[in-house]
TrEMBL record:
Lineage per the UniProt record: Bacteria, Bacillati, Actinomycetota, Actinomycetes, Pseudonocardiales
Domain FAD-binding PCMH-type: residue ranges: 35-216
Source organism (scientific name): Amycolatopsis melonis
Gene3D superfamilies to which the protein is assigned, alphabetical: 3.30.300.330, 3.30.465.10, 3.30.70.3450, Vanillyl-alcohol Oxidase, Chain A, domain 4
A Pfam cross-reference name: FAD-oxidase_C
InterPro entries documented for this protein: Alkyl-DHAP_Synthase, FAD-bd_oxidored_4_C, FAD-bd_PCMH, FAD-bd_PCMH-like_sf, FAD-bd_PCMH_sub2, FAD-linked_Oxase-like_C, Oxid_FAD_bind_N, Vanillyl_alc_oxidase_C-sub2
Name of the protein: FAD-binding oxidoreductase
Keyword check for Amino-acid biosynthesis: no
PANTHER family: ALKYLDIHYDROXYACETONEPHOSPHATE SYNTHASE, PEROXISOMAL
């Protein structure tokens, strides 16, 4: 179906598509004794028709199919689970790498699922357009992966989450091709696009995505503020959100994360900055990164209102150096993690979201659960995305790795954190469900909700070949 050269069975090719990039994935890859599932082959189709043809063959021979994009899942979303099948393939969409069309009048672009974030911006930039979707996984993640996991970019307050950008989607399913999206809005029943988005490869393989795009912004302005403590910072961000004055990027670090930023960022002239803030009554600062993108007039207008409200909240402007430092270093996390792993550190992240009335309690509960499980550790938190009704909380955890049981060490800590989240916040704001969060899904959507998802899956994938063991 795809040509012999595009069916790979060598060990390096199979191992490269066997896991994502979670801490547990990396620990398993580094251990000569660790066991994890590996696909029996890697198949590289060249377009939507070939993807459909591959699925047809896999249905006929009852072969499991794990869609594979950038491989950046941190929740087991691309693990090569068999689900009772005798064989499983990794369906690598890297050759689906085209900009299919641009409708400049409607500001809609259609991109194939395998296009990575930077390439999407390059292709759109040739038409003077941008998607504006920049999550931390941007360098490796793909358009199809963004859609399959309901990704949230760092500038989502301005550009929207990925599901807000999707105007149409094309999928290959075991029952045939499925196309959704014909108008900017519709009352023709429930929006099935939203069923496909976030389906994590369990209901179909996304092959093309139609997306709302915008002109490339001529001005990008990022800067930093310091607020006197977490409570003051949360109140300030809530005020911005509820008065429609959020910057495109609005990111609030708690005291611990701020302290780590001060310790690691030599360019901030830490001692002088501490004196500057202390003189203004800010002795335990929480850094706030704000960034705007657009025309000079639009940026100036919006920045003025944001700055006015932050000043009223007691924020002290730190300046462009802090904002630009964050902007230029925002993709460094995965590389820093590798360096920490080399030095025997357990380092991982997790995230959730809650209504404003629950944000502080949820942060405290998750921090307490992680600390109780891990013992001596650093638990940092920041608000990564803000909404009128609530915000996301993103935790970064560092502790000494238990060399006798490194996998169990983090599994116990993550389970404790998930138990603390369940019932108060969502089990995932943007990392998706995958394998890791599947046990907690029913607590969020109810047993009936899980039945609904299973019923849909049985309709489009009656033999269960698509991404076995994920989501439901």
């Amino acid at each position: 179906m795809v040509g012999t050269e595009n069916v790979l069975v060598d060990a390096p090719a199979r191992l490269a598509r066997a896991t994502g990039l979670s801490y547990l994935d990396l620990v398993r890859r580094r251990s000569p004794r660790a066991e994890f599932p590996v696909p029996d082959a890697v198949v590289l189709p060249a377009g939507p028709d070939e993807v459909q043809a591959v699925l047809d063959v896999c249905v006929e021979h009852d072969v499991g199919v794990v869609p594979f994009g950038g491989g950046t899942s941190v929740v087991g979303g691309v693990a090569a689970l068999r689900g009772g099948k005798t064989a499983v393939i990794a369906l690598d969409l890297v050759r689906l790498d085209a900009l299919v069309s641009v409708d400049a009048e409607s500001r809609i672009a259609v991109l194939q699922a395998g296009v990575r974030g930077p390439e999407a911006e390059r292709l759109l930039g040739e038409h003077g357009l941008t998607l504006g979707h920049i999550p931390q996984s941007y360098e490796r993640a793909t358009i199809g992966g963004f859609a399959a996991t309901r990704s949230a970019g760092q500038a989502s307050s301005g550009y929207g989450r990925f599901e807000d950008m999707v105007t149409g989607v094309r999928l290959a399913t075991p029952r045939g091709e499925w196309k959704l999206g014909v108008a900017p809005a519709s009352a023709a029943g429930p929006d099935l696009r939203q069923l496909a988005i976030g389906s994590e490869g369990t209901l179909g393989v996304i092959t093309e995505v139609a997306l709302r795009v915008r002109p490339v912004p001529p001005v990008r302005h990022y800067e930093g503020y310091a607020l006197p403590g977490w409570a003051a910072g949360v109140a300030a961000v809530r005020d911005l959100a509820q008065h429609h004055a959020l910057a495109d990027v609005t990111r609030l670090s708690d005291v611990d994360e701020t302290e780590v930023s001060l310790a690691l960022n030599a360019g901030l002239k830490t001692a002088a900055l501490r004196r500057y803030l202390a003189a203004r009554g800010v002795r335990r600062p929480c850094f706030l990164i704000v960034g705007w993108e657009g025309t000079a007039h639009d940026v100036a207008l919006r920045r003025r209102e944001t700055a006015r409200r932050l000043k009223a909240a007691g924020a002290v402007r730190v300046g462009k150096a802090l904002g630009e430092s964050w902007r230029h270093g925002r993709f460094a996390g995965p590389r820093q993690r590798d360096a920490l792993l080399d030095r025997g550190v357990c380092v991982e992240t997790l995230e959730t979201a809650a209504y404003w009335s629950n944000v502080d309690e949820l942060r405290d509960d998750v921090r307490a659960a992680l600390t109780a499980s891990l013992g001596r550790s650093i638990v940092m938190c920041h608000i990564s995305h803000a909404y009128e009704t609530g915000a996301s909380l993103y935790f970064t955890v560092l502790t000494a790795r238990d060399e006798t049981d490194p996998i169990g060490q983090w599994q116990r800590a993550k389970a404790a954190a998930c138990e603390a989240i369940a019932g108060t916040g969502t089990i995932s704001h943007h990392h998706a469900v995958g394998v890791d969060h599947a046990p907690y899904l029913s607590a969020e959507i109810g047993a009936l909700g899980v039945e609904v998802l299973r019923a849909v899956k049985s309709t489009v994938d009656p033999t269960g070949i698509l991404n076995p063991g994920k989501l439901v």
